[in-house]
Amino acid sequence: MADSSSIDYSSIPLIALNFSLRKELGLHLNPRNTVAADWATMAEMMGFSYIEIKNYEKYDNPTAKILEDWQSRCPKATVGKLVSMLEEAERKDILTELASLIEKDCIAYLKRKEESPVQVPEVDSWTPDKNGITTKDDPMGNMPEMFDAFICYCQSDIEFVHEMIRQLEQTVYRLKLCVFDRDVLPGTCVWTVTSELIEMRCKRMVAVISDEYLDSEACDFQTKFALSLCPGAQKKRLIPVLYKPMKKPFPSILRFLTVCDYTRPCTQSWFWGRLARALSLP
User: Fold this and answer.
1) Residue 251: CA atoms inside 13 Å, Cβ hemisphere, count?
2) Which residues, at least 6 apart from 278, have a Cβ–Cβ distance to it below 8 Å?
3) Terminal CA-to-CA distance of the chain, rounded, Å?
4) What is the predicted pLDDT for the residue at 228?
């Protein structure tokens, strides 16, 4: 078990920093500042060109976008390198305020590595540091694919998932959804991969609730795991979606969350815009 005194930040890939921390970094770096270094300064230090930096201005959270692109294009994008850049940019105020969060994410990353199954060298199966887990990942793990939301669903609800893809990905919303049957490569450990995707690759999780959902072991695991990452739903990480009437009682562990309800005809016209807005938040 790693502790703060033994952490080698230079060996920890940037993907160890979760969305909550990236959001906090954005709150500090997104405002353009004539005095202190901002996201554009960091982008320049990361090697982005002037044209690229100008294009990042259109994003609501340019800090999150440059971090995502930096870890995709640069194998040496580590937590230690980011910390060094912030120090060089004289933004030690950020490091002071976020030190505990950085430490927490790195310890969690190291713990996941320690708890991964021991394997003999001949076994060519997935680990967090080797091989891609989604169809657009770099095979060597240098370009992890990132998503706006992980879709938790059971097979009987796949038609609604297809409709969700059409409404959220193929329209002006241009969201990027992680749909297990479409995006995850076969031959991987289901529980390990879903945990990695929900915690590290996806900003949020949408749970498609139905009677069949209640009987799904995979949906139960994914929902409880997502809830464990946001106690009290303070970060709006899990969004339940009810798309058809249920005969069974609504799951009690989700009753304290606001439900996006597609079953009421009078509110269906607002449904997709409301859901898209929730998934577009930083």
Assistant:
1) 23
2) 204, 236, 239, 260
3) 31
4) 82
Mind giving me the DSSP string for 4-49? Answer: GGG--GGGSBGGGS-HHHHHHHHHHHSS--SSS--HHHHHHHTT--
Q: Give the angle subtended at the CA of 72 by the CAs of 69 and 74, to the nearest 5°.
A: 100
Are the C-beta atoms of residues 8 and 80 closer than 8 Å to each other?
yes
Rounded alpha-carbon distances, angstroms, from residue 172 to 59, 167, 169, 243, 272:
15, 9, 8, 22, 11
State pTM to two decimals.
0.57
| Mean model confidence pLDDT for the chain | 84
What is the model's pLDDT at position 138? 67
Q: Burial-class residue 58 by CB neighbours within 10 Å (0-12, 13-18, 19+).
A: exposed
276 by Cβ neighbours in 10 Å (0-12 / 13-18 / 19+) ranks as middle
The tokens of 266 are what?
Answer: 């009078």
Please state, for a pLDDT cut of 90, what percent of the chain lies above it. 45
Question: Is-contact 137 183, C-beta < 8 A?
Answer: no
What order do you get walking across the sheet with 238-242 strand by strand? 177-178, 147-152, 202-209, 238-242, 260-261
Average pLDDT per block of 10 residues along the chain, 282 residues long:
65 85 90 84 91 86 87 81 93 92 88 56 40 75 81 96 96 94 86 88 94 93 85 70 94 88 90 93 78
Confidence (pLDDT) at 15? 82
Alpha-carbon separation of residue 159 from 34, 148, 162, 226, 232 (angstroms): 51, 20, 5, 23, 31
Helix (H, G, I), strand (E, B) or coil at 205: strand
